Every structure is written in C-alpha cells, then in structure tokens.
Amino acid sequence: MPSFIETQFPIARLSAESYKERKAGASQTLTGLGKWWGRKPLILVRASIIGMLMPASNDLKKDREVFLQILTMDDDGLWQRCGGEIPAIEFRNVASLEFQNKFFTARGFKQGLSEEDKDRIKELIWQSLSIEKKIFLDTKRRRSFNTKSEFDALPYSERIEHCVRPENVIGPTADTWLKINTHLNTSAENLPELILELGERLFGRVPRVGDSFCGGGSIPFEAARIGCQAFGSDLNPVAGLLTWAGINLLGSTPIEQAKIKKIQDQLFFDADKIITSWGIEHNDKGERAEAYLYCVEVKPEGCDYYIPLAPSWVVSEKYRWIVIWHKVTGSDRLRSEVLQVSQDELEKYKKKKGATISSGRICDPFDENRTWSLESIRGPDGLRRWTNDEFTSRTDDILQERLYCIRWSKSIEFTDERGITITKIVRRFAAPDVADLEREATVHKLLRERFLDWQSRGLIPSKKIPTGGEKTEEPIRTRGWTHWHHLFTPRQLLTYGCYLSGISNSLPKEGVVTVILKLAIQANWNSRLCVWNADKSKGPGSTEQTFANQALNPLYSFGTRSFGQLYESLVKPFTFTHVQSKSTEIKLIDARDLSDTCDLWITDPPYADAINYHELGDFFLAWYDKQLEKSFPKWSSDARAQLAVRGDGEDFRKSMVEIYKNLALHMSDNGLQMVMFTHQNPAVWADLGMILWAAGLKATAAWTISTETSAGLKKGNYVQGTVCLILRKRIINEPGFLDEVYPLVEDEVKKQIGLMQALDEGGEPNFNDADYQLAAYAAALKVLTQYGNLDGKDVEHEVFAVREKNQKSDFQIVIERALGIACDTLIPKGLENSWRDLTLVERYYLRALDIESRGERRQGMYEELARGFGVTDIRPLLKSDKANGARMFTPSGLASTQLGIVGDSSNNQIPARRGRSVGTSHPFASSPLRHLMFAIRETANSDNSPEPGRQYLRDTFGQLYWTKRDGFIGLLEWLSSLGNTDGMEEWANDSEAARILAGRLRNDHA
C-alpha cells in the first residue's frame, strides 16, 4: 500500500509554513544552538515523517483533510493556532495553589519577575498539565479576529501571519482526533501515540528515523520530538555536537536548564571579575568599553604615511559619529579624530569620497587623484605567512592593524520631575588616547603570558587553517593567516580564554556543551571577520556575523565587542522544547560505514560543493575541539575533510552510490527514503537519478517545497525550493528497454500532472510551473528506476561512464523528454483549441507569457521551459534576462527588434514573409504567431484601427488566411486578457489592440 506522501503532499501550505518558520530568524527552535547552513524547516521534517507513515486510501481528498488535521494546518487547526501568547492570567488559572500564591496576583504575574523568569514559570506549569488541560490552555491564545469566518476568508499565507507555528501548540483537539482516528482506524490522543500506532502497523515497533548527513540536526531532532526513535550521523564533529545538543539540551527540563544557567552565570561573573581587575575595558572616567573598531593600514610606494583602510568612516549614522584623519608632524602614522556632527554635516560627509579602500584600490584620504592597486601592494610573492605564536602583525609586515575608535558607556542615575530615580546609559565614541593604547599593550602582554598554556588546554584555538580549500584559502592568501586563532584579535583571545578557563572536570557534560556552543555562537559575531554596521537600524552600531555569507572574508575594517557586552549571548538559556523520545543515538561516522538500520531514512546530501561544510565548520571546531574530546571520548575532533563527499565528478558519484547502497541495505524492506536537494537542472536530476538507481532504489514521488527566504533579497537566479524525492527498495531487478520506456514515461507524466491538477485548489494553488516540471522528472525516475538495467546496460557502468562534452546519457535523454511531455501537457487555460496547431517555439512563447502572468520572474524557469520545448535560443524573445526579473517581449516591443526583420520600400520594419530571403533567422521569426503579433502592433500604432492589422494578415497568408482565421481569433482573445493581469501593465495597449483586432477578424468575410 502506498504512503500518503507517495500520492500527494500539500505543497502550498507546507511552503507557506516553511517560509514562516525560516523568517522567524533567531526565534527558530534550533538556531539558538549555533550556526549551520541549510537546516531544513522542522515543519517540513514533521510533515515528511507523518506523510511516510500515513497510508493512502482510495479517498484522496479525505486523506489530505486528515493529514492537515494532524499537523494543525486545516482550517480548524489554524484557528486553534490563531493569536499570540497565552495570557498570564490563564496560566494562573490552571496552576497549582502553590504556584498561584508564589508567583501570581489576581491579575497576572507578581512585579519584579524578569521575562526570563516568567517564561520558565509558564513552562513549569505547562509541563505539569494533562493533555486535556494543555489543549484547553491552547484555546486561550489572544485572537486577532472577532469570528472564525472572518479569519477563514483570508488566504492561507495571510492567515498564518496571525498564528503561532505548529510546533508551538499541543496538537489537534479531542474532536479532531476523533475524526483522524475514524479515518485511519487508530485510537491516538496525541501525535506520539499516532506515531506509535502507525509505526507498529508498518514495522512492528516505534519507527526509527535516520539521517546520515545530520548537519544542523533538524531531522533527528524533530523525529525525536514527535515520538520516533531517532538516529543521526555525520562526519563533521560540529554537526554531531549541534544534533546532540538539540535533543539533549533543548529537550532537557526547566529544572535541568536552571542548573546549566547557574553554571553559565558563575563562569561569566568569575571571568568578568578577572577582566575588570586587569583594567583592560575600563577608563578613569568611570566608563566601560562596549566596542573596539580596528582597521588595516598600508604604506604604498611613493606615500609618506600609512593609509588606514575602510569602505566608510561613518561609525554611527543614527547618532552622527564620524572619523576624520590628520597628518602628524614627524610621524608616518595618521591620527584619528572621532566627531559627533549635525545631520547636515553628516549628509555632506557621506557625499564626499569617504572610502580609503574601494574596488580593490587604495585611495589617498588627502588626494583623491592618488590610488594604488591592492594587489600591487601585496607584491608578486604575496604576504608573509604568520606563525602559530603570533596573534598580531609584525612591524615589518605590509599590512598593519590599528585601533582607531572605541565606544564607551556608563550608567547615570538622575531624578526626574516626578521624583523617580531613572538610570540612563550614556554612550560616546572616541579615538584611542595614550591610556587606551597602553591598555592594548597590556592585553598583548597578558595574552603572551598565557598563550601556549591556553592553547595546550584547548582554551584558545591551536589548529592550522587547512590549505587548498575553496573557502579556507582566502584568509591565507589575502592576510597571511595560517591558524584559526589569527582570525581573532588579541583582546578576543584573551577574554574568551579567560572565560573558558573556568571550565572544570566537575562540570556535567550538558554544562560544558552549553558553554562551548554559546562561545562558538559568540565567535561568529565577534571576530576579525565581523563588519561594523553603522546603519541607522543598528542604533549606535553593531558587529555583523562572520558568516554573513558562506565564506571566510577578511576585512580591512571591523568591529569587536567587549567582554562586558557578551553576557546576554553567553548566558542566555536555550529555548525549552519537550522531546518525546529518549531513544536517540548520534554518531560521528562515514555514511558508507553505517551499520544501523532505520525504517525511514531522510537525508539532505551535499551536492556539487554547494556549501563547504568541512571547511566552514572548522571555524567553530577550533574553539572547542579539546573540550569535545573530553565530553565525548568516542568522538573524533577531526572533521576528516578527506572523507567528505564533495565535487561532481566520478569520485563524488562513486561515494554517493556507496552511501545510498549502504542505506538501502540498512533499511526495512517496506521502509522509505526521502532525499532532499535543491537543483532544477535535468542533467543534475539524471546524475542523482542514476546514483539512486545504482544504489538499488526506485523513485515513487517527488515534491518541491519553498524553503529559501533569501531569494527575494539577493540578486541572482537563486533556487527557492527543496525537492523531496521519495524512494523505496527495488526488490525485483527486471530489465527495461528504451522503446518501451518512452510511452510509459509519457503515461506516467500525464498521470502525475493530472493528479496534481485535480488536487489544486481554486485561489490557493498547491503547485507552480517548477513543481510540474519537477513532477515530470520524478515521473521519469519512477519509470526508469524500477528496472535493474536499461537496454542491457549495466547500471553502475552507466553511472561512472566518461562522456564527451555535451554527450547525454540515455537516462538524461529520457528525463529531458519527460519535461517536453509535461510542457506539452500543461496547456495555458483558454488555448486548448489552438494548441495542437502551434509550433514548438510558438508554444514556448505563449507558455512563457502564461508563467509571467502568474508572477514568475526567474530566468532559470524560462530557460527550463525552453528545454522542454526544444528551443535553443530564447534571448531574442526576452525583453529582460535579469536573473530574477525576466520578461517576454510584447508585440510592439518584439516588432522593433531585429528578429528576422527586413525593410520595405517605406523603410518600415516588417517580419520576414514567405519567399523573402533574410538569411539565417530565429525559428520564431516566420511563425504565424510572429505575424499575428506584428498585426497587433500595426493595430496599436494606428490608434487601435484594426484595418492595417487585418490587411497585413490577409496580404501575408493569402488564401491560407481563411483557414487560420479562427485560430488567430482564439490567440488574440487570449492575448487580450494579459493587460488586465497584475504585473503585466506593459501589455495594456497591445492587449486592447488584440481585442479590437479579434473582433474585426470575427466579422471579416470573403
């Protein structure tokens, strides 16, 4: 019996929920544990597991209804989730008498409790309640709407803006569970009970869910949270630690977390006491430093002074602080002056050439006509490589580093006119004075005294940066940094080392892991690679994270935080979340060597080096490798980069086949796998398809969920979704033959698209064009991967076969043909009667207009569509080929291009007609649709008089005009609707001309 996920998946709603979760930023459940790349949304993981366990019935709509009810994504579940926090008074009403007297008044919490205290009290009350009381409390959330009907009238994506995420409610109500149980023939009262019943029905036990590339830990964490046995493995120790922490730290009780918080407090205050005694963050004005701003400076050939480098010298736009530079008599170092200016002065300053480093060139701050290439400064031999015992530049280095600004603060108490004492924080920016530079020297001295001892104890990094890496080579090449500690200032190394030195052997594992993870998070926001953001939205200014992108980019100016500013981030507790299953296991092991059997494998494998996890993860691992070894003696602190699966060549394919063969071997016979990836290239699909085929797996379905939040913010043709490919073991290896495969693929593609169209809801489509195209690929894989070989060719031989450039495998040819079938099956609404008579290039143009009318602007989608129709050159048809701003030409716009156009006697430009010699032209140039578009243009240019357009068509086609007239009318009526579509305003004039011309052709008679 197929599972629910093999027959359907609520794409639109899951995409909306995934997007909402990703946009939650720091309030996502797992992000507080530490930085990782590509974590999959928890709601997607939850839905996938339930979809793989839930059986499909003959009633697809009822299946969908019940599936959404389980996830509280149905209309009633959404209303249950509508609203924000549960009011404090409602917690009081269900709390024990002891809690009521201790923490509450008649109206809510007692005064004096911090928000953190309130959250913990709520959590303790919540954990003490029965399921029935938890469900009751869920209904007390503050509502944003007066009635449910008012709420239900909104589209789903707007409704969830007013809802908490599914993970933050107890689950379906008792009435809803009755409906779920009736359909599934179960007796569950909550999600873990349902998981148990479905698992026992399928596998005879609680289902075991595994992920052999666990990364940030989303899959094992969510599996454990909803009651599955969870297994996670990875080569990378950072991934292993994050996954372990998700289950064991986020899943700990509030009491256990309170103990850990006490450890964190003690470590911080002990370190802060030492740092205060050193006097390295305080001055004699009663102020404490909050931030230190550094920059690189160089002395180019022919220049008498070192030039400080920065892209801007505005340090706080909101409070109008800027830096200006002065020459110093008798010195080759400039002096910084930090000023607070008026708004007018700030605007004038910003308009001036304020940068001293721009587009790789050094700019003289006193002579804008003098610039130097940064590459020429580095010289042909590059920069000197720093040694392990160094933590700052030497006096003879080409690139020097200097402190140029400090932000100070102090608390001032005063009494207002009401007699109330108010504490105010007063901040100022200042250039470092002599005492500040002496404090910098003290930092260097203190660090030098402790450096080797702290490295040996693992309190500061000691590892080398790997050479030859795509990302790790950047700091080596551009700055000469050879060890991970070079990415941190002496001040950062000293304060972090002081903090970690408080860790003792008596601390529990959970306490040590919390401390080192929190420090790793802080390292991301406080290194030499952190941009100082002076933007207004950042108030007085703030550092940005090291990994603002997936790279290690050394900067010419950067900001650092003082230790006094780190309390909240180092000591803030993790979010508590109840983890149902305690049957979990995390291993650091190569996926090829796994011997653990799982019922469901859900994996998000690395592909084509999209992210260099093994390189970027070392940034964090360098801070806690030795502590990791103490807490997890069986784990290796080496990322074992040489074993990492990466690249896209033969070695990569071989590794992937071995991995998925092993997972198939260690999977229940009736189990499933889900492979997630984010590519839309048919060659990539063919590659991955052959890998899974050779691994003994067969595809049964594929779905695309929108999971990325950055596509609308970044420039470029970014992938927006995650493809979820569903697989089972191929039990029987029957031979297949290409001549038999093609018609089967065609039938499967049409069947899959028909099923998807039937499930689409009016006003809330589940699928877009990308989904339909990916469904075509999946349909082809479903047919191909059921066979043991194809035309007698050995599967593994085909996977590893070396092909000439542009040579395609049989696998890829079939997949591309599937796309063509899909494109031909997806006829734009209103063109059903005309479609059969159109050429492929005409169909492409109209389908491209169709997807444009629905808001599609990604260039990649237009290129993908062209593959399906066999159109090799789409550039002449595109008015814009911007990555996320692609648009097709309108009739008037296209008629003025050089697409197969010749001049007539009046020098007007007209399309090439029959019999005219125009040389090689685009296949669209002489198509009937192209001539029809020119007729629209003639009509629009004649103040919407249809006669020139009608006459042009009659002259062009002669007697054929009469046989084509009905088809022209259908096309004109379809084009006439485009001008009324949102985002297609530039079609307004041509659409009106098309409408008028259609009316004239309808009334035309011989």
Layout of helices and strands:
Elements: H1 11-23, H2 42-53, H3 60-70, H4 75-81, H5 88-94, H6 97-103, H7 115-128, H8 131-138, H9 148-152, H10 156-159, H11 174-184, H12 191-203, E1 208-211, H13 218-225, E2 229-234, H14 237-248, H15 254-278, E3 288-298, E4 307-309, E5 314-316, E6 321-326, E7 335-340, H16 343-351, E8 357-358, E9 361-364, E10 367-373, H17 374-378, E11 400-415, E12 421-430, H18 434-457, H19 473-479, H20 490-500, H21 509-525, E13 532-533, E14 542-543, E15 557-561, H22 567-571, E16 584-588, E17 598-603, H23 613-631, H24 650-665, E18 667-677, H25 682-694, E19 697-706, E20 721-729, E21 734-736, H26 738-759, H27 769-784, E22 787-790, H28 795-800, H29 810-825, H30 840-853, H31 859-869, E23 878-880, E24 887-888, H32 891-895, E25 901-903, E26 909-911, H33 928-941, H34 947-957, H35 960-976, H36 988-1002
Parallel strand pairs: 1-2, 1-17, 2-16, 17-18, 21-22
Antiparallel strand pairs: 3-4, 3-11, 3-15, 5-6, 6-7, 8-9, 9-10, 11-12, 13-14, 18-20, 19-20, 23-24, 25-26
GO molecular function: methyltransferase activity
InterPro entries: Antiphage_assoc, DUF1156, SAM-dependent_MTases_sf
Protein name: Adenine-specific DNA methylase, contains a Zn-ribbon domain
